[in-house]
Specification:
about 600 residues, Heat Shock Protein 90, Ribosomal Protein S5, domain 2, Ribosomal Protein S8, Chain: A, domain 1, 3 domains, nine-stranded mixed β-sheet, five-stranded mixed β-sheet, 25 strands
């Protein structure tokens, strides 16, 4: 049996680093949280090669004495906790005392720190856990920490890092996240010597939101005035439902100054929109919550990303009430000489439950005008023969005649009823369009050229999502899109495939981007293949098409010219048959 021994301090720190330090962004998070706790009024972050080669964080906070600077590199050394009772009242971002020794154990680490009342500062260097003697140096008031060659002594960890652009995007996200939580602090971010973010301090949260989220979003911000419920204070801003996106990446929540993620909060935000959001969509919001720290546990996750509320129901009520109050139509202000002649009714402009949702985010069946199937003229049965596709592999379907159908009518404007030789057939037109678009994209025919947009569409996204899209730029080009980075968090789309019938270009592109992000976000090892990309384009494109019963015959002709007409790209059926035998059995005739 192996002998049990106590791990060395260096090894213990490296093990702890495995829980806290996942990538360069994890280092940046820990360092800037220390700077915020130190009372900094300005924080500068610099990275090279995505942070793998260099990370530097400078602040003008309180600084440390020589003794504190040396002790800060010891595991569990903290100025935040003195007893277990202090865990019930944590208001600082850091408190465990593991971050600095963990970072120093897997990098070449240098710290300079100076207090305001001293004339010289202290330098402490650590190489992979080996601490060098501190020495006196000249430096500004505050603290500067430099981290080089991350994971140089843990190659197994280093090989799991992503591309430099991806790691840089994660760093960018962390800086913007903390810049949002602390508008009173000025922030600067440099990547490879270039300033990409320069945010002066402000006391107006809306100014900071506009600077980080983009001017377009800033114009439509809805302020959430300070609201209190049982000691829980809520304030911030949100965007109308037309800005809703799949996933929660547009939600920024700060609890007692700490960025947090919590499903209770996300559900409350969605419920506050009272059904104005399509299924699966989440609103964009920036929330600052404050409450008694004893009512929340911030020590449930190694990286402090998640929290646990003692009474989640009260959090839900507070957020829903605050958001609903913010979205209430404002009462018109009349001067004495004005006589009101009309008051808004439900569904008119000003009613958030009906006016904030844009039509392009609704399902195509909700967009399209309803038709009465009984009023549709039934044409004579169409007769098609599928033409052999030279560029597609010849299959049994390719050489077989296409089935013959008679169009009967529409069901709830979601399905088309067809009469076939063997019974009733239900067609889902949106799935048919999806299959047609998908196979056209796979063929990569010469006509897959970009149709230039009169006004290019600018999409303001999370920095991580911009990086993801640009890594798939070749897919976009192959499919007939014109896509390029517009700097910062913005991507410009100047053209879309000419064969696509797109009525709402922005809505189509947002859904496509969300679909790609959603697919990449499930932990797949390999990049999204072109086939998967084409499926996302087809899905988003099909939702833009509003069909009517008179177009079904030519649609069936295009469908049965496809290689696999009976299923959409995801494998779901396009046509469902109910045979005469089954109908007779259900009516008790068999």
């Amino acid at each position: 049996m192996p002998v049990i021994e106590v791990m060395s301090e260096t090894l213990a720190s490296q093990v702890a680093a495995g829980e806290v330090i996942e990538r360069p962004a994890s280092v940046i998070k820990e360092l800037i949280e220390n700077s915020v706790d130190a009372g900094a009024r300005k924080i500068e972050v610099e990275i090279q090669r995505g942070g793998i080669a260099l990370m530097r964080v400078r602040d003008d906070g309180c600084g440390m004495s020589p003794g504190d600077a040396a002790r800060s590199l010891q595991r569990h050394a903290t100025s935040k906790l003195r007893s277990s009772d202090d865990l019930n009242g944590i208001l600082t971002l850091g408190f465990r005392g593991e971050a600095l020794p963990s970072i120093a154990s897997v990098s070449r680490f240098t710290m300079l720190s100076r207090e305001a009342e001293t004339v010289e500062g202290t330098e402490v260097r650590v190489d992979g856990g080996t601490v060098h003697d501190p020495k006196a140096v000249g430096c500004p008031v505050g603290t500067s920490i430099e981290v080089r060659d991350l994971f140089f002594n843990v190659p197994a960890r280093k090989k799991f890092l992503k591309a430099e652009t991806t790691e840089a995007a994660h760093v960018d996200h962390q800086v913007r996240l903390h810049a949002l939580s602390t508008p009173e602090i000025g922030w600067v971010l440099r990547k490879d010597g270039r300033v990409v973010l320069d945010l002066p301090a402000t006391h107006d949260r809306r100014v900071r939101i506009e600077a980080v989220a983009g001017a377009e979003s800033g114009r439509d911000l809805i302020e959430i005035p300070r609201w209190e419920h049982r000691g829980i204070k809520v304030e911030g801003a949100l965007l109308p439902a037309s800005y809703a996106r799949r996933g929660r990446k547009q939600q920024y929540v700060f609890l007692n100054g700490r960025p947090v993620e919590d499903s209770v909060i996300s559900r409350a935000l969605r419920e506050a929109f009272k059904g104005a959001l399509p299924e699966g969509f989440q609103p964009a919001a920036w929330l600052w919550l404050s409450m008694d720290p004893s009512l929340v546990d911030v020590n449930v996750h190694p990286a402090k990303k998640e929290v646990r509320f003692r009474d989640g129901a009260q959090i839900r009520i507070a957020i829903m009430d605050a958001v609903e109050q913010a979205m209430k139509p404002k009462e018109p202000e009349y001067s004495p000489e004005m006589i009101p002649t009309h008051s808004p009714s439900v569904g008119e402009k000003g009613d958030p439950a009906s006016a904030t949702i844009s039509p392009e985010l609704q399902e195509s069946n909700e967009n399209a005008p309803h038709q009465n199937p009984a009023s549709t003229v039934i044409k004579s049965p169409p007769r098609w023969r599928a033409e052999t596709q030279e560029t597609l592999p010849v299959t049994e379907k390719s050489i077989a005649p296409a089935p013959q159908f008679r169009v009967i009518g529409a069901l709830s404007h979601r399905y088309v009823l067809l009469e076939g030789e063997e019974g009733l057939v239900l067609l889902e037109p949106s799935s048919a369009h999806e299959r047609i678009i998908y196979e056209k994209l796979l063929l990569k025919e010469e006509d897959l050229e970009a149709q230039g947009l009169l006004v290019p569409v600018l999409l303001e996204l999370d920095a991580r999502d911009v990086d993801l899209l640009m890594r798939h730029q070749k897919h976009f080009e192959d499919a007939g899109f014109t896509l390029e980075s517009f700097g910062g968090q913005t991507v410009q789309v100047g053209g879309i495939p000419s064969f696509l019938e797109v009525k709402e270009t922005r809505a189509f592109l947002v859904e496509l981007v969300d679909g790609i992000i959603e697919r990449e976000g499930v932990g797949r090892v390999q990049r999204l293949a072109y086939e998967g990309f084409a499926a996302k384009v087809a899905c988003a494109g099909s939702r833009q098409i509003q069909w009517n019963i008179g177009e079904i015959e030519p649609l069936l002709g295009r469908l049965f010219a496809c290689d696999l007409p009976y299923c959409d790209p995801a494998g779901r059926p396009v046509l469902v048959q109910i045979s005469f035998q089954e109908l007779e059995r259900k009516f008790g005739r068999s």
